[in-house]
């Protein structure tokens, strides 16, 4: 079974005042022998690379938080709730639970540390208290040693307990051969089938499952309990097996198509612009060996004038970009698909009509799908 390898991969979210990069050795994506689950082989010690970067602002989807809080409160038997969230990502949901149940006490284990450090310190911590609700939003896919984390959860839960886990669903990305999903911070790339299977194998009982649609990646939302009896392993899904294998083996073909497209832009003297200094863009640049861009736009004020990934020009905001007088621009939207329509509206303000594309295969503006490109 062939693995997917990317050499000299730059760490994402490394926003610096001077052009500099932190390179990882080969990033290797593998398929599990027991299922269609895709995962990173590498165990990068990101703690030594990433201190608390105040530039990074977590922005997970939260439109469904009120709905999820109602589901949790319907399932929990106790009227008095003692809850814990592992990271700052969990605080919004915890506050919503307290808003609906005034007898709720909660704490957030870590608000400031990076997710990597939060996971490390949580597994090392000796807890004197037990909780009947534990919240894990968009952190499970980051955890390298999930068995160790599971054992820590067993230590801190009460008999009447619920554990809420939320992870991104990678099925759309795998189907569409979207290689921008690969990120050194995400160890695992789940679908509904692989997530439920892995959780059951660890010893979780699935109390409730909900899929919440989202333009980029759907959210897989589960209420869990820790089961005392051993659970049977989930059967392999042949369709998902083939999708995962196809994802691993088709990168070379995809790179050839991408290379031809960008060479054609260069041949026709287009200036290359990316809108969104995100980890998805970092992966896209690394995979396609794109080391030059004329402009990099991001409207996050904390990123302004910082250097990002392999691009040797600092980030500018859209207002400054509007002042640029270039005739031939090819702009690639590289931030979350939920923001695409908002960005398209902004780009309409430009006096000169650029070519507008998306780096994401499941976008209607994907560069390889636009006729005449």
Could you characterize what this model shows?
With 373 residues, the protein is α/β, with parallel strands linked by helices. The protein folds into 2 domains: 216 residues, Rossmann fold (3-Layer(aba) Sandwich), CATH 3.40.50; 104 residues, Rossmann fold (3-Layer(aba) Sandwich). 29% of the residues lie in helices and 23% in strands. Strands 7-6-8-9-12-11 form a 6-stranded mixed β-sheet, sandwiched between helices. A hairpin with a 6-residue loop joins β4 and β5. α1 crosses α2. The chain is globular. The two termini are 35 Å apart. The model has no long low-confidence stretch (mean pLDDT 92).
Mean pLDDT: 92
Widest sheet, order of strands: 7-6-8-9-12-11
The percent range for helix content is 25-40%
CATH superfamily of the largest domain, please? Vaccinia Virus protein VP39
Distance between the termini: 35 Å
| Number of helices, counting only DSSP H or I runs of 4 residues or more | 11
Could you say which overall geometry the principal axes of the C-alpha atoms support?
Answer: globular
For the sheet with most strands, the description reads:
6 strands, mixed
Q: Assign the CATH topology of the largest domain.
A: Rossmann fold
- Structural category is alpha/beta
Relative strand content: 15-25%
Task: Outline the fold blueprint.
Layout: E1 4-6, E2 9-10, E3 23-24, E4 27-31, E5 38-40, H1 65-75, E6 81-87, H2 91-100, E7 104-110, H3 115-124, E8 131-137, H4 146-156, E9 157-168, H5 171-175, E10 188-189, H6 192-202, E11 204-212, E12 219-226, H7 238-249, H8 251-267, E13 271-275, H9 279-288, E14 295-297, E15 315-316, H10 318-321, E16 329-333, H11 340-347, E17 355-358
